Amino acid sequence: MRISRPRSVLLAGAVAVTLSATALPAAFAAPSSTAVISEVYGGGGNSGATLTRDFVELANAGSAAYDLSGFSVQYLPGAPSAGSQWQVSPLTGAVAPGGRYLVAQAAGTGGTVGLPAPDATGTVAMAAASGTVALVSGTTALTCKTAADCASDTRVVDLVGYGSAVVREGSGPATGASATASVARAASLADTDDNAADLSAGAPTPVNAAGETPGGEGPGDPGNPTEPGTVRVHDIQGTTRVSPLDGQAVTGVPGVVTAVRTTGSRGFWIQDPSPDADPRTSEGVLVYTGSATPTVSVGDSVLVSGTVDEYYPSATTQSITEITAPRTTVLSSRNALPAPVTLNAASVPAGYVPSAGGGSIDALPLEPATYALDLYESLEGTRVETADTRVTGATSSYGEVWVTVEPEQNPTRRGGTLYSSYTDQNTGRIKVMSLDSARRVPVANVGDVLAGTTSGVLDYDSFGGYSLQATQLGTLTDRHLKREVTRKQKRDELAVSTYNVENLDALDDQGKFDTLAEGVAVNLASPDIVSLEEIQDDNGAVNNGTVGSEATLKRFTDAIVAAGGPRYSWRYVAPQDGKDGGEPGGNIRNVFLFNPARVSFVDRAGGDATTAVKAVRTKKGVTLSASPARISPLNDAWTDSRKPLVGEFTFRGEPVFVIGNHFTSKGGDQPLHGRYQAPTRSSETKRVKQAAEVNTFVKSLLAADKSARVITLGDLNDFAFSPTMSALTAGKALKPLINTLPANERYSYVYEGNSQTLDHILTSPGIRRFDYDVVHINAEFADQASDHDPQIVRVRTGGSGHGHH
Asked: How far apart are the first and last CA of the chain?
C-alpha cells in the first residue's frame, strides 16, 4: 500500500467549521505585557502571494530582553480532528525590548519575495485562512484541542487563533487572513486576550530581530543576478543532514543543470563543477519549482536565487535540501556535466546508518566512509552511476525498481537480497526511477539485471529513501524467473497452506480470482487445507454493515475448480462490523478452505465474533469448545485487528488443530532509512501481545494432550528473528518452520528491495514428520496477484523423525 502526502503548499487553504451556539470565550490566565505573537501569515508561497514562505512574528512590549531559550512556536489546524497534533518549532535567542523576532515556516511554490533572514526556522505548512499559533514555554507539543483546555495550560504564553479557528483567545478568532493577508497586532502591541479585538488583517509585514524587512538591506528579493553570489551548493548542503542555511535566502548560487523533473513535484538539479575538498558536503541540490514546469535544460550553466528549505516528506523521514521559490538566470548552455560518482561494492561502506539512541540523526556530522546512508546523503542531488545492477525488488506500478549495487550482499537463491537481521542492513539497495518520459523503467522481476550503466542524480523520498533519478537506464537482462510449483501431497500427507490473498472481495475483477485460484490449484498442488488471510466481506470497501463473505468465497472456490482444483468447502467466523481493522468497510477476516474429499471439519456450535474458544480435555484427548472459533476476541491485543481463527479437523481418523492468523501490520513503524535511528517499531508491542495470546492457547491444547497436532500459520507481519516470534514460540510450544530452510530461502515477501519473511507456518511438538516449502509465485514478480508468497507444510501421519524441503 502506498500513501501519498501532498506538498506543504497544497495544505494551505480555508477550513470551515461549525461552532456550538453555547461555546464560551476562553479566559487565558492573563494578557501578556511582554512577549506576544505580533503577526501570523499562512499564505506564503500560495497562488497570488508575494512572499514565498509562511511566518510567525513575535514582539516584546516589555522594557527588558525576553529570553526565548527553550521556548517554541506551535501550530494547530483551525478545525483540529482527533488525529491532529500541535507542530513544534523550537526557538533560541531573545527578543529585544520593543523588538521583533521572525520565525520562518514552510515555503510554497508561489511568490517572488523572500523573507528577511529569519531568527528561527520551522517546517510547518500553515493554512492561509484558518489556524492557531501558540508561543509556548517549552518544546513539548501541546495536547489541548479546545480554547478552554489551552487556556488552562500554564505553558502557553500567548495564543492567536485566526479565520475560523476553534482554539483562540476571547470571543472569537482574528479574521481576514488569506493568501495575501496576515493578521497582526496594532503598533501598541496591546494584548487583551481577545484575538478578534487585538489583531486585524492586512498586507504581511515580517520584521526580523535586526529590523530587516523583505526587499530591505537584509536578504530579500535579489532579482536575477548575472554574477555568482558568495554561497555555493556545498555551503547549502553543509556537513550534516540539515542545511546550515535552512530558511535563509540565497543569491546567485552557481551550478550546471544535471537533470530536470517535469512531472509531479517539479524541479531541476544543479551541481557545482568546482567542488570543495570535504567529502561530507554534497555538490548537488534540488531546485524545487512546484507545479511550474522548469524552463532550464540539462547542461545549462545557471545562477539560482531563492530560499533554502529542508522538506520532510513525512514526520519520520529524512529531509530533502532544496532551493525553493527560485529565480534562475541562464548564463550558457550545452556545458559538460560533472563526472558521476560510481556506486558499487567498493565505494559503499559496510555500516548502514549511525545511531542516535532512537533520536534524530539530523545534526550528526556525516561519516560517508563509515555509513552507507551518510554516503548517500553526502551525494544528495549529485550525479551517480551504477553498472550491471541486480534487481532485488520487481518493477512496481509506480515505475520504480529496486536494485543492489553490492551483488554479493546476502543473495537469495532466486536473485534477491535477504533481510536477516535488525543489525545487518543491506547497504547496497537503491531505488531506480526514470526522469525520461520516453524511456521508462523496464518491467523487471527479482534476479533480472540492468546491464550496462544506469546513471542520474541521487534523490530521497519517503517511499524507500535514497533513489536514483535516472537520466540513463541500463538494458534489461531477463533471467526468466519462474513461478514455483510445489509437489502434490502423498496419500498419507496432510497438506496445509497459508495464503494472504490481498483484500479479496466479490467485487474484484475475475482476473484476480483466476490468478489466485491457479496459485492454489496448480502452484500449491491443491492443499487439503488453505488458511486464507485478507478475505473481505461480500461488498468489499462498501461500508453498509455487510459482514458475510459467502459470495466472495463462492467466486473463489468456483475459480479453483475451473483451474483444475477440488471443490473446497469453507469455514470462518464473521467479524463484528468495523472491529477487525483493515480497509474501512471491508471487514477483513481469516478463512479456512478445506477439501472434504481428503479431510473433515469438526463443527461445534458456539463460535462467534465475541466468544473465546477453549481447550476441552476428554478421555480421548483434547477437543475445542467451539469450531470454528476465535482466540480471546475481546482481549485488547486484538482491538481493530483480525482475530485468530481456530478449527478442528480430522485426517485419516486423527484430529488436527489449525490456527489461522493475521497479526497487526507494521504500519506506523519508523522507516529503516528515516531520521530517527535506531527506528522505533511501535507496532511490535501489539503483535507481541497477539503472539502471547496464541501461544497461551496452544499451551492449553498441549496441557490437555501433549501430543496434540497443532499447526499455527498465517501472515504474522513480522520476522523470524523478531520479539513477536519469540513470544509465539515461548516454552517450545511451536516450531517455526521457516528456520528449517536454507538461509537463502527464508523469505515470502519483498519490501524496498529486501526479501523477508512475514508469513509463517509453525507446528507443535506432536508433529514430527513434515515437508515444508515456501512457494514463490508473487513477491518477486512485477505481475502479482498478491504481494505475499504462499507456504505449505505436508504432515505425515504416524511415525517419527522429520525432514524439510
From this structure: 32
